[in-house]
Input
Amino acid sequence: MSGRELGRVQRVLESGWVTTAGEEIRSLERAFERMTGCPAVALGNGTAALHLATKLVGLSLSNRKRFVKEVVVPTLTFAATANAVLYERWRPVFLDSCREDWGLDPQLLKEFLEARARENKLPMAVMVVHLFGQCADMDPILEVCRRYGVFVIEDAAECLGARYKGRVPGSIGDIGVYSFNGNKVITGGGGGMLVSPNAAWVEKARFWSTQARDNDPEGLHNYVHSELGYNYRMSNVLAAIVLAQLEVLDLRVQQRRAVALRYRDAFADLPGIELMPQAPDRLHTNWLSCFLIDETKFGMSAADLIRFLDAANVEARPVWRPMHMQPLYRKCECVGGAVAEDLHRRGLCLPSSSCLTEDQQQFVIERVREAHFKAKGRK
Output
């Protein structure tokens, strides 16, 4: 917390507007509209935003004869991305990553869409995930999707504050989604946002998120519903917290980047440990400081290093387990997968909090170095 949250929350409590109506919600939406240049709707969490994004692209399915109820999803992602597709009873098709940025492989996507176009079985959308604070390579992805009329949904939950060639992630495709979960760069303890240059889509998402309540034709404030809706709205209290956090977004990004750079410099002399690639045309927020371990050079595998750190009271985690390796999704189509499997096998995330002190980080650094030297039989 930045210390600015208390005053905003206090004003909300005093106003009495603590649930899903209130000025803080609209103020937060306006802040994202200024940042992205797109209409915005605040929602209860990022997963809800992903679900409504999938539902929105389905509105035109009946008019798109070459398209099927499928969404392309990177296999290297958190489960919420794929789950949103399943909520609509559509099929996710998983695609591999590229090593240059760990994002969706544009060349693999091009080849996949070319083949599907010949079969007249194009997916309705491609859901691009901006991983660990870095944007995927959007230009070639957009180019091939525009060629075939495939919608682009940006899952920007992990990269608020990043940039792709100066552009704001989430505002580049047809729909963008953000998360304010407790572990993100800024947080409200929960919450999400959906943005789109298509204002009608944003209003439809707003309608669905409020239980799809229609205006009462009798004017009696009856609850009238002609469509299936959801309880997906953000609370005014949560919006107040996120607004206060948004004021320090740039600072939080600087802090996360500084953590990653300290790790990089501290491990520069260690063989077999390498920071996640950072593309020169993008601003990486380093939401998580991710590394690849070369077992032969470092002396132990990423899994063994995680166990070593855990025993030293340092929390480290693997890179996401690819979706095609998850029991729920093992029967789904996956194009490629070897790169994502390798990144998962060799990848790990070190403590990356914006409030990580230099002493705390030095402790982590010393334990990583200790692991290497012990594995190599050196002091």
Remarks:
- The mean pLDDT is 94.
- The radius of gyration is 22 Å.
